[in-house]
Amino acid sequence: MPEYKLLAVDLDDTLLDKNLRISDETREALARAQRSGVVVTLATGRMFRAALPFAVELKINAPIITYQGALVKHPVTGEVVLHRPVPLDYALDIMDRVNAYGYHMNIYLDDRLYVARHTEQSRLYQSISRVEAEEVGPLIPFLERAGQDPTKVLVIAREEELDALAAQLKPVYGDKLHITKSKPYFLEFSHPAATKGHALAAVAGYYGLEPGQVIAVGDSYNDLEMIEWAGLGVAVANARPEIQARADVVTASNEEGGVARVVERFILGIRGNGYPGGAGGGTTG
Fold it and tell me: Which GO terms describe its cellular component (predicted)?
């Protein structure tokens, strides 16, 4: 079995349960991985400030991947490993196009969250992220006054509406922007190199590691790049079938300790309890 040195784990619907908590079992498994010399990090679409409490809880002493990979920052030292924001002109164009549909938008500047006005969607986002949104009125004039590239732009609507919007805008922007869903009702626009895959490569390079020494665990479309980049790409059982199909291994769900199962099998080398002999599209846990 390869000797893995870096474990990157998505937060929502992967590491966190339905109550947005980390189970005692999973917390202990990750602590054991760290004691064994493995670097543990988070890879999330959340803001840095929204991911930080979980990094503190897990005693992570490594750069964490936030904003889908747009910001990689050390939770202890504050070192910024990379920041790849959306160019201002593109951000304004996105917002102008989305305004025509009336969908809710979030923009992010300096790790702060801004909305035009509070809505049912902003309250939903606040409840998940545990970050207070700042109401600033129409977003285009606000961003023009700020004159700053936002870290990302997020649109909240029904899944079928977001799928139609993405289908319309992907050809418009081509390789100039990365467009992905982090949840069925969150559509995210970011710098073309702001993916979890590119960010994970940067974190691995920070430690002088190759893809074969890295495990990535996730559940959603925004996790695909890191699942495919890592030497061992893992999907939790609650991931959609198309995500599971792209992973090397499918582990138990986020409610059933899937991340703990990965640590036990592929880092600590614990066999039995229904674990397979290896990867290659099998299931662990």
Answer: cytosol
pTM: 0.88
Of the CA atoms within 13 Å of residue 82, those in its CB half-sphere come to 22
Cβ neighbours of residue 69 closer than 8 Å, sequence gap 6 or more: 43, 84, 190, 193, 194, 195, 196, 197, 198, 199, 200, 225
**88-190 CATH choice from 3.30.1240.10, 3.40.30.10, 3.90.226.10, 3.40.50.1820:** 3.30.1240.10
pLDDT digit string, tens, across residues 182-192: 888 999 999 99
A 10 A CB-CB count for 208 gives: 8
Domain 6-83+194-283 sits in CATH at: 3.40.50.1000
Interval 208-246: pLDDT, tens = 999 999 999 999 999 999 999 999 999 999 999 999 999
